[in-house]
Amino acid sequence: MPTGNDRINAEGAGEGLRDLHTLTHGELTELLASLGQPKFRAKQVEEWVWSKNARSFDDMTNLPKSLREELAARLTLGGVEEVARQVSVDGCRKYLLRFPDGVSVECVGMPSRGKLAVCVSSQAGCPMGCSFCATGAAGLTRSLTSSEIYEQVMHVRDDFNTRVTSVVFMGQGEPFLNYDATLGALRRLNDPEGAGIGARHLTVSTCGVIPQIMRFANEPEQFTLAISLHSAVQRTRNALMPGVRKYSLVNLYNVMGEYVNKTGRRPTYEYALMGGVNDTDSELQALCDFCEGTLAHVNLIQLNEVEGSKLRPSTDLRAQDFVRALAAVGVEATVRNSRGVDIDAACGQLKQRLSK
Ligand code: SF4
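A: This is the predicted complex of the input protein with iron/sulfur cluster.
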């Protein structure tokens, strides 16, 4: 029967040392026991990894030096590397981070009035192919692990040197096509011994992968759900978001009713306004019909223009028409500032620019 230590050595021999972030609590405890360490060491090591985001075993100053050396001989601490950044005049910082296998993703830190929100990627690239998105144009490279998602938040936290108050899964990727890793990251972010962020301040944004919406509703934590709607007209939505063509708006409407009944929580509908595409009178009427009588909040966002795309933002006046019309049917809507408009803020743009 191999011990955890044997397995770690065996994996290390074949494909490099194993990343400590990928060890379960049981595996870490087993490894430390095999090194003759008392039980409380696992908690100490985990605090360095998940809460303090140690980048080197030498940082773990409350561990004996000999143990730090033994751990360093068997494990790595991941090694996410920042390869590029852009800083906006509004204070947003966008990062391109690379993992040890060479795969890179974007994340964004958005400071505002003493708070720090982080937008993370759940996949490198994305298979959904949304026509208004730079990431969608490039396709999927691979899904991220839960610790790779978590490490993005820690990287931003350490760069701003302040507590992260909320996280949105609105970067590259469709989180519900990487459900288990997304949930693992959410739980670690929520854990008081991890990032300690309240569940209601952790938001997953999905294009509407219907089977996973009810799965999410049944999770015990009060995580927040946002739906990228972008049109309540089936034909328009099919054209804008081909990846969710198989999930009709009728089915989405029904499952969101079930979600609200089950959780009692108000979902957000994201709606990127595109001039002449989804900001017409008939589109507005369809959006009002979709939301009327339901528990819903609508976020109206002016489209971030993507190089090479014909899609253009709508006007501020038109956005106000949407707010008024939605209010008239009892639905609250907010026009969101496009943060970081000067820094390729739409997901995938920084990566796209650097790969040219
Ligand atoms: S908008 Fe989101 S879901 Fe759509 S292609 Fe881009 S990253 Fe994927």
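Residues 1-14 have pLDDT under 50 and may be disordered. The longest strand covers residues 104-112.
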